[in-house]
Amino acid sequence: MKNENKLDQFFNRGLKEPETPFNELDWEKMEGLLDAKPGKRVLPLWVLAASGVAASLLILIFFMFNNKQPITGELKNPVQASVVEPKITPEVPNEQKEKKLASAQQLSKPMTSPVSLGSAAGQGILKATISNEPSVAIQESAAPMDEDAVVSIAAIVEPTTSATTQSKPIFKARSPFVFSIIAAPDISSSPANLSSKVSTNIGLLGTYFITKKISISTGAVYGRKLYDYGGISLPAYGNPGKKWEVDADCKVLDIPLNLNYQLFNNKNNSITVNTGLSSYFMLNERYKYINNDGINEAKVSVFEIVNQNQHVFGVANLSLSFNHQITNKLNIGVQPFVKIPLTGLGYQNSKLRSTGVAFSLNLSLSKSINTN
Amino acid sequence: MIDVNAYRLTNKLIIVQGIIIGCINKDRSSQHLLYKEYYSYCMAICRRYTVNEFDASDVLNNGFLKVFTHIERYDASKPFKVWIGKIITNTAIDHYRSNLKFSTHEDISAHEDIGHNASIYGDLAYKDLLNLVQELSPAYRVVFNLFAIDGYSHEEIGQILGISAGTSKSNLFKARKKLQEKLDDSYLKYKTEAPVIAIKYGF
Asked: Is B68 on the interface with A (CB under 8 A)?
C-alpha cells in the first residue's frame, strides 16, 4: 500500500539519505565495543597478583624473624637448638653468602642481652628480635645449624658464645632483601596525544638480591594516568572538519617484575639498570569524549568502566637507577624510567607510553657479620 | 554501450561482498570499511529515532555490534542495505523501548532555532526536518518513522511496539498534525531569515 500522504512523502524525501560526514570518534567507540571481551573473569587475576605481592612480603617478614632462631637456640640452649627448625628456605651457598657479606654495610658492635635470649629460647623468637633491634650482627653461626639459611635480620649475639660460632672476618654484606617506597610522576601519552599531562604513581617494591649485582624486584604501584588524544575528522561537503578529543583518567595497578643489574657501585653510590615487565590492572577508566564542530557548543559525554581490563605482562619497563646511601640500611634513589606498552591498554586499546622519574626510599633488611 | 551507473553499482556490490567476507573472518580493517561505507545511511536512521547525537551514536554502535556479530547470517541474495537497515532500526526501537520510562519531553534545548543549524545551504532542509522529527514526543516519533519513512503498516507497527494498530494510527495522525504546524511556522521564519543566514555563514 503506497503512502499517498504528501507530508509523509516530504519527510521521506528529506530525511532518507543525507550525506553524513564520517566521525572517527564513533569508530573509536565501536572498536572499544568490538574488543570488549564478555564474561571475562576479572577477579582471579587481580587476586593472584595481589596475593603474589602479599606472599613475597610475607616471605620477607618470615625471613626477618626466622633468622634469629638458630642463633638464640644454639647460643643459649643447645638442647633448644634442635627445636628450632630451619624455616628459611632459599639455598644460598656459603661462598655466595660470603660474597654478599663482602659488600654489606658497616657493622655495629654486637649487643648482649641474656634476658631476652632466655625468653627467646622458651617463647616466641619474634619478641626477642624486636626488642633487640638496634644492633646489627651478622650471624654466621647459622651455618652449623642450617647451611642453607639466608641470614638477613639483626641478631643478638652474646660475646661469650661467639667463640662457638664460626669466626669469620668482617665483611660488608649486601643484604638480600630491600624494601622500597616509591613515588613517581610521569607523563603518559598515546599516539595522537594533544597535550602533556602529569600522572602520579606511588607504590611499594621488594627487591631480592640473587648475586651481588643481580636482583629481582616486584611490588605494587598505584597510578593515576591522565592523558588525552584526538584529532580532526576530514572536512566534507562544505562542513568543516570536526574536532574530536578523548580525555582519559585511568586508575591503574601496576605489578612489575624486574631484573636489575648493578653497573657501578662504590661505598656510597650505585647505578643499576632495570628491565622487566609490568602487568597493568585497570581498576577504573574514565573517558570524556568531546566533539567540537566549531560552530555549536562542544558536546561532551563521559564513559566510565570499572575493573574490566587486565594486561598481564602487557608493559615493558626500562630504567636506570641512581642510588645514594644515607645510612648503612637506608638509601635513596632517583630512577628515570620508560614504560612501553606491548599491547593496547584499557577500553580504548591505547598504546599508552609513560616516561617519568621515580623517587625511592630503600631500606635494606640487613644482616651484619659476627665480629668474633 | 555500457551503462556506467549499472557498472559502478555492480562493481560496488562486488567490493562490498568482499568486505562482508572480511567481516565474517573478523578482520578489523574490513569491519572498519563496512562501518564507513554504511555510516551515513545508518546514522540517518539513528538520528531520526533519537533526540541527540550521543544517543544516535550509541544506537549506531550497538546496531553495528549486532551486525558484526551476526554477519554470517546475512543472506547474500538479498540487498545488504535492507538487512543492515533493519538491524539498525530494530536497535533504535530497542533504545526507544528502554527509554520509555525516562522520556517525558524531548530535550528541546538540544535543538537550535530553525535555520541556524545549517552550515551549508543544501543541508538546511535535512537538519530542519530532522529537528522537527526530533521535537516530537517519543511515541509519535517512532510511529512516524516506522510508517512514513520505513514503510511499515500499522499492523506491523503494532506488533513491533506492542500497541494496537489503532493506537499506531492515532499516533501517526497526531505526529503529522504537529509536524505540519511546525513546518508552517518554520517556513515563514525560513523565508524571512534566509538571506541573513546566508550572509552570516558567508555563503
From this structure: yes
